[in-house]
Design a protein that fits this description.
heterotrimer, A mainly alpha (295), B mainly alpha (328), C alpha/beta (332), A: 295 residues, mainly alpha, MetI-like fold, two-stranded antiparallel ribbon, 12 helices, 2 strands, elongated, B: 328 residues, 13 helices, globular
């Protein structure tokens, strides 16, 4: 996109690159900016927080210190094992965010590769890959996540693995449909005509065009990965004690729900606002990258 | 039309079988469900051996799949390992209507709430109502279902109480003990109070997504040229929107509903767990946790079938509603 | 109904668009008249404001656009002062409009018949039966074969040309006094274009309606128009009867447009097709003075400083230029 600025007789052309344009539009998007700011706060809380609030999240204080209400020593109180809740919230944040981020990016990578391959090669490869996508999409995800989790074991890596296994299909379909429309365009024919290999076409030519929806998808994917993590850990699989994640903090809290309901609030609100921020940002990114803007 | 249906159904069969196969493989990797039974002194060795044989556990996995599939189609679903003494069929069929109630009511609630809200949001774009609804739908999408369930329980069962001291809404289970002997109306009302929270909790996620999507479908339609033509004819604005625009904007939501069904199933499982509702979702989770894998498989088959059928139904309804699609 | 009575008198119409990036003066003081039964051709490149002018007449301008000034006197009354309800009565019945893209201008989920009947029943007190009969008559009139069958078909089942015919049928269903055709033939194949033009000429004579024919293609107006108004960046730069504009173009822009039409009669086949240099300026960065000056071969200092007024150079021939083209060679 270029603008012509007429200064008397001299005209100057200013070129805006695509990404700069996206950036400008993003800045104007209110919800996205709210999301970005709150996300930064949350990330700071989880990553930098423990250096400021130097309390051991695994340390169980003396008996009798369980489930204390908020105090100066423990701003969010203590949990049922007499551990400081604030510290656990910070460390739990690190784990939940880590899982969310790695699961979402891995799922997107897998999905993108599958989508590029299916879209580019077409034919039997496409049919088989898409059938697999259809099959996996027909299975109710959550019960099978639990089943798979009980198979691969409990813990962080198995958890990420499990989320990725059931999370790549959406990206695959998305990327494939973009590739299919790109195939029709002339630059694809040109690339084939000069003898580009399949891999080159896919990664050098198609991939840049697919980046925009992929970025949106990953951002939104982090949000849903965090929710999956929370749900799986809540049921007892996934992140195990004494490690903290927002999910397993909720599992603990459930037992004491009627006595100390605030234990349910803290990790839950943390999850809610984190996922909300990712969703706001993802939505803003999607609007910013969309060529048709309904203004 | 009929030919199309038959063709589609035939295409879906391999998908269905593939899904079952994958579920089967995953569940098979779980440890032997009969190990627990071996410990139980009340069950005779020979019976266990008979079961192992009937279920094909003495065979390699690929043969086991077909033997098992064969038994299922013959209607022989085996015993329930979770509830010894009952057959799997009994246990499942008892849980089935409950889950259907929960899922069905939640689906209806979602549609009735989300579609009009999405449309209003689009028609009044940029208004305060629009922003409010946008934020509301984001909350709906971002909230973990089970947490929302817990919160609802805290609010309506712990904080809010009836004059009698009992919780305003029961925090679990499906009916008051002893209600079976009452008449129809009291039984229905009783069921409603138990289902109120779980249905709303389950619907929240869908409502969040659907309001957004319906809003964007409607916005797309609102920018179409044929609305300008309608106005140029002298049509009043209300008719332009509610006759010309709406008819087009309601079409994509059908596909969306079908695509969300797997999510509703997943959500139902965890909602039932949190609210302790004896439905198929909870049964499935418990079966997996306690390694009752025959029952788990049966329920998975049912859910998979549900997903596939709803896709098919969505296709049919779509073709009825959109004149551009005609399957001849 | 007097033959020479003035039907539409647009006076100094101004429609501006208030966007985030600035104010776009899409229609900036446009005036023209159309008598009953007359055809006025409104000609100009894309983006010059002609569509916006026609939409302004129908009061179909939506945010961020706004009609900020002028009058549109239709049958003696100013349309810009009417209430929404009064305007709706006029739309479709006294003034009708057809648009450029017949595919997207018809609602895909309703049948052709349904959409035409809607137009009829809105303004006429007929029963559904009678409306249906009238619709089939109309479909016949516009040259659609097998009208009864087509009545029940959906827009996607018709070809582009037929869809446009259906749109025309819908537009004339209530015998409008004025038909606004906004680039109605642009999206069609050349042969279909010719057919639709013939149809419009035919109907215009039969029904006696006036036509505001908007296009960027000069060749089209040559056949149909009584008068021609050439627009550039929201202003009229030349306004006269068709013959004068073609034989005796005065504005450099009109002159350039006419010269750039490839003609099969040109003897000098080896000469380069003279194109007007430059591009239509961005609405946010209008040149100072006469808007055409960066592209004008006759430009002088005053053109860069002041905007010329619309002057009556010869009787009934208005030109907005400081250096109108004198005694041009016959171009067509």
């Amino acid at each position: 996109m270029a603008e012509e600025i007429a200064l008397g007789e001299v005209t100057q052309t200013v070129e805006y690159s695509y990404w700069r344009l996206v950036f400008h539009r993003l800045l104007k998007h209110k919800l996205a900016m709210v999301g970005l700011v709150s996300l930064l706060i949350i990330i700071l809380f989880a990553l930098v927080g423990p250096f400021i609030w130097r309390v051991n999240p695994f340390l169980q204080l003396a008996g009798g210190e369980e489930l204390l209400p908020p105090s100066v020593a423990h701003p969010l109180g203590t949990d049922d094992y007499a551990r400081d809740v604030l510290a656990r919230l910070m460390y739990g944040g690190r784990i939940s965010l880590l899982i969310g981020f790695s699961a979402a990016t891995s799922a997107t990578v897998v999905g993108a590769v599958v989508g590029l391959t299916a879209g580019h090669y077409g034919g039997i490869v496409d049919t088989i890959l898409m059938r697999i996508v259809d099959i996996l999409l027909s299975i109710p995800i959550f019960p099978l996540l639990i089943a798979l989790a009980s198979v691969v074991g409990k813990g962080i890596l198995p958890l990420i693995f499990v989320i990725v296994v059931f999370g790549w299909m959406g990206d695959a379909r998305l990327v494939r449909s973009v590739v299919l429309s790109l195939k029709e365009e002339e630059f694809s024919e040109a690339a084939r005509a000069i003898g580009c290999s399949g891999r080159r076409i896919m990664f050098v030519h198609y991939l840049p065009n697919v980046m925009a929806p992929i970025i949106v998808s990953t951002t939104l994917g982090i949000g849903s990965a965090i929710i999956y993590e929370a749900s799986i850990s809540f049921l007892g699989f996934g992140v195990q004690a004494p490690l903290a994640s927002w999910g397993n903090m909720l599992q603990n809290a459930q037992n004491y729900m009627f006595i100390t309901p605030r234990m349910v609030w803290y990790p839950g609100l943390a999850i809610l606002f984190t996922v909300l921020s990712f969703n706001f940002m993802g939505d803003g990114l999607r609007d910013a990258m969309d060529p048709k803007l309904y203004r | 039309m009929r030919n199309y249906l038959i063709r589609r159904a035939l295409q879906l069969i391999p998908v269905f079988l593939g899904a079952i196969l994958i579920s089967f493989i995953i569940l098979s990797l779980v440890s032997n469900p009969f190990a627990a039974m071996m410990e139980n002194p009340k069950i005779r060795r020979e019976d266990i051996q008979a079961l192992i044989h009937a279920w094909g556990f003495d065979l390699p996995i690929y043969l086991r799949f077909f033997k098992w599939l064969g038994s299922v189609f013959q209607g022989n679903w085996g015993p329930s390992l979770l509830y010894p003494g009952y057959s799997a069929k009994e246990v499942i069929l008892r849980a089935l209507p409950i889950t259907l109630q929960v899922m069905g009511l939640s689906l209806i609630l979602s549609i009735v709430v989300a579609v009009p809200l999405g449309i209003i949001s689009a028609v009044r774009q940029y208004s305060k109502l629009d922003y409010g609804l946008t934020v509301f739908s984001f909350f709906g999408m971002s909230m973990p279902t089970f947490w929302f369930g817990l919160m609802m329980m805290i609010v309506f069962s712990v904080w809010l109480k009836r004059p009698s001291g009992l919780p305003l809404l029961p925090p679990g289970s499906i009916q008051t003990p002893g209600i079976e002997s009452a008449a129809l109306i009291p039984r229905i009302l009783d069921r409603v109070q138990y289902l109120l929270m779980p249905v709303i909790v389950l619907a929240m996620n869908s409502i969040g997504y659907w309001v957004r999507y319906q809003r964007s479908f409607m916005l797309e339609v609102l920018h179409q040229d044929y609305l300008r033509t309608a106005r140029a004819k002298g049509l009043e604005e209300r008719k332009v929107i509610y006759k010309h625009a709406l008819r087009n904007a309601l079409i994509p939501i059908i596909t969306l509903i079908a695509l969300t069904i797997p999510g509703v199933v997943s959500g139902a499982a965890i909602t039932e767990f949190v609210f302790n509702i004896p439905g198929m979702g909870q049964l499935l989770l418990q079966s997996e946790i306690k390694n009752d894998y025959p029952t788990a498989m049966l329920i998975l088959i049912f859910f998979t079938f549900l997903v596939i059928i709803s896709n098919l139904i969505a296709d049919i309804v779509y073709s009825l509603v959109d004149p551009r699609i005609r399957y001849t | 109904m007097e033959k020479n009575q003035i039907l539409v008198d647009v006076k100094d119409l101004k429609t501006y668009f208030f966007t985030d990036d600035g104010v776009v003066e899409a229609v900036d003081g446009v005036s023209f008249t159309i008598k009953r039964g007359e055809v006025l051709g409104l000609v100009g490149e894309s983006g010059c404001g002609k569509s916006v002018a026609s939409l302004s007449i129908m009061r179909l301008i939506d945010k961020p656009g706004k009609i900020v000034g002028g009058e549109v006197i239709f049958k003696g009354e100013d349309l810009l002062k009417k209430t929404e309800e009064e305007i709706r009565k006029i739309r479709g019945s006294e003034i009708a409009m057809i648009f450029q893209e017949p595919m997207t201008s018809l609602n895909p989920v309703f049948t052709i018949g349904n959409q035409i009947i809607e137009a009829i029943l809105l303004h006429q007190d007929l029963s559904e039966e009678e409306a249906k009969k009238r619709t089939i008559e109309l479909l016949n009139l516009v040259g659609i074969p097998e009208p009864e069958r087509r009545f029940n078909q959906y827009p996607h089942e018709l070809s582009g040309g037929m869809r446009q015919r259906a749109m025309i049928a819908m537009a004339i269903s209530c015998n409008p006094d004025l038909l606004i055709s906004d680039e109605a033939t642009t999206a069609l194949d050349v042969t279909i274009q010719a057919q639709i033009l013939e149809l419009m000429k035919d109907l215009q004579k039969k029904i006696g309606m006036a036509v505001l024919f908007i296009t960027h293609d000069l060749a089209l107006v040559a056949e149909m128009a009584n008068n021609i108004a050439v627009t550039y960046t929201g202003k009229i730069v030349e306004y006269s009867d068709a013959r004068s504009v073609f034989k005796n173009p005065k504005h450099p822009y009109t002159y350039g447009l006419l010269r750039s039409v490839p003609s099969l009669l040109f003897e000098e086949t080896k000469v380069e097709l003279p194109a007007i240099e430059g591009m239509v300026p961005s609405p946010y960065h209008m040149p100072q003075g006469c808007h055409f000056n960066p592209r004008c071969p006759f430009v002088t200092e005053i053109c860069r400083k002041e905007m010329p007024e619309l002057n009556e150079l010869e009787p009934h021939h208005l030109v907005r230029c400081f250096h109108p083209v004198q005694a041009a060679k016959e171009v067509v």
